[in-house]
Amino acid sequence: METTQTTEGGGGGATGIAAQMEVEAFRRLFPLPFYKRHLLESVRPDARALDSARDTTISLGPVASADGSALVKIGETTMLAAIKLEVMTPSKERPDEGSIVVEFYMPPICSPMVRPGRPAEVAPVISKQLLDVIRSSGMVNLKELCLISGKASWIAYLDIYCLNADGSLFDAALLSAVAAFTHLQIPLVSVTEEGRVFTVSSEQEEKTKFELVNKEKRKLSLSSIPFPLTCVIHEDYILVDPTAEEETVMETSITLVLDTLGNLVSIYKPGGVGLASTEIMKECITRTKRRIQELKTILEESVSVMEVD
Amino acid sequence: MEYVNPLTGLRIDGRRPTEMRHLKAQIGVVSKADGSALFEMGNTRVIAAVYGPREVQNKGQQMNNTEALVRCEYSMANFSTGDRARKPKGDRRSTEISLVIRQTMEACILTKLMPRSQIDIFVQVLQADGGTRSACINAATLALADAGIPMRDIVTSCSAGYLCTMPLLDLNYAEDSAGGPDVTVGILAKMDKVTLLQMDAKLPLDTFETVMQLAIEGCKAIAQYIREIMLQNTKQLECRRGS
């Protein structure tokens, strides 16, 4: 096949670029053999080892107007989570508990696959997964979201926006939700004579004549924080933290969520060509445990960075 | 309420009447998009992503075979404004702003060079503090430049108002909701032509001239800033390419 020659570079440079053209074309036309060649050398196209995840960063408090917010990046995948608290009347069956509403959005900016009128089909799936994991892990004690038993409690609206979709969407989304809850501060609240509850901002605090319902702004005490890891399986290879390209090519993914106490919170393997034997599951669990240590350190560092400011 | 303090002459956020908010822009924030930019005007923060030129996805919408189809969608994040209760897209305001941005950008994109293709401009508001329309247009200009889409000129936009008998440049949310007039202008910077002009509330004609001139000055200042950012970006790309 004739490859185009460019004017820059001498003989060595020209063959370099010619080889480059071949590689890119090969990658697009035959993705699976392209990956196979890399897997035989135990490496991936972005030079990562099979069991290493991409660089993860967490930044707390990017949205000043929200009560709690976090921006998480795993490689290029970017998620922005924000929590807004509103007062509501609790249900009669649970008069001293608040509630959490989780919504996950994939706006058209995040990926060429998402178009207006044709929303991403993974978005509601991830939304439901997030809600299930946050509920079942018991990370947030709903009784902490109570204000006045039977009369008023907090409803926490957690909105997560995907700003850049490059694989491992659920991982980044759950991490951003956890980080936002870590950053959440419950505002001061006071009651009017008619019994209406309203939030008091810190400037009004000194001037208010009303009695404050809660004496100080406080953070939630989170127990057993869940941390996720997504892997893709191809024959006997397990690739940790896939990019969007790897997810499309290899098709079978497993998501595991473990909490800081070592309990298994959630396993999610939605079908797929690859079959996961018990050994593969055990391998994935080991990888997840290692990843949890990394994520825990990163989260603690970001909290201490924020407290220094 | 006094939006301009009579003693010091400063506004509620400490700016002088003809002073714009702090601008900050970043190119290439969404790696998956062909072109993207983050634009901040004070507390208003907006991300624009451009996908295109690519194949037309809905053949029914394609009007003629000689020009590219430009599509735009504007949406606000749930947490972008003070209270959360809003439908992020599909409500009337978002549809109107989508239309405004589309027509403004269509004026400057050389659509005849890319027939039978589609250019999608998506704008997402992360934080809204007045002037979202202008921030979106400025972000869209940078994103289109990042995507390498041929344009006639750069389009910049700025708003100005008139409160307490003073023309004010670049209104924030508090000043915007004060009920005074709000003039939003979008210009083609070098050609010095107006492509977008919107105004609401009553204003006598000669005051309108002053306010519009002020807004156009603001647009030119933004155009200067945008050029600097694009130059910086090109230098970085040159550096990475190793030449």
UniProtKB/TrEMBL annotation, chain A:
Pfam families: RNase_PH, RNase_PH_C. One of its GO terms (molecular function) is mRNA 3'-UTR AU-rich region binding. Gene3D superfamilies: GHMP Kinase, N-terminal domain. PANTHER family: EXOSOME COMPLEX COMPONENT RRP43, EXOSOME COMPLEX EXONUCLEASE RIBOSOMAL RNA PROCESSING PROTEIN. GO terms for biological process: exonucleolytic trimming to generate mature 3'-end of 5.8S rRNA from tricistronic rRNA transcript (SSU-rRNA, 5.8S rRNA, LSU-rRNA); nuclear mRNA surveillance; nuclear polyadenylation-dependent rRNA catabolic process; rRNA catabolic process; TRAMP-dependent tRNA surveillance pathway; U1 snRNA 3'-end processing; U4 snRNA 3'-end processing; U5 snRNA 3'-end processing. One of its GO terms (cellular component) is cytoplasmic exosome (RNase complex). Keywords: Cytoplasm, Exosome, Nucleus, RNA-binding, rRNA processing. Belongs to the RNase PH family. Signal peptide: none annotated. It is found in: Cytoplasm; Nucleus, Nucleolus. The keyword RNA-binding applies. It comes from Rhynchospora pubera. This is Ribosomal RNA-processing protein 43. Residues 53-187, 225-286 form the Exoribonuclease phosphorolytic domain.
Automatic annotation (TrEMBL), chain B:
Pfam families: RNase_PH (PF01138), RNase_PH_C (PF03725). The keyword tRNA processing does not apply. GO terms for cellular component: cytoplasmic exosome (RNase complex); nuclear exosome (RNase complex); nucleolus. CDD domains: RNase_PH_RRP41. The keyword Cytoplasm applies. It is found in: Cytoplasm; Nucleus, Nucleolus. Belongs to the RNase PH family. This is Exosome complex component RRP41. It comes from Rhynchospora pubera.
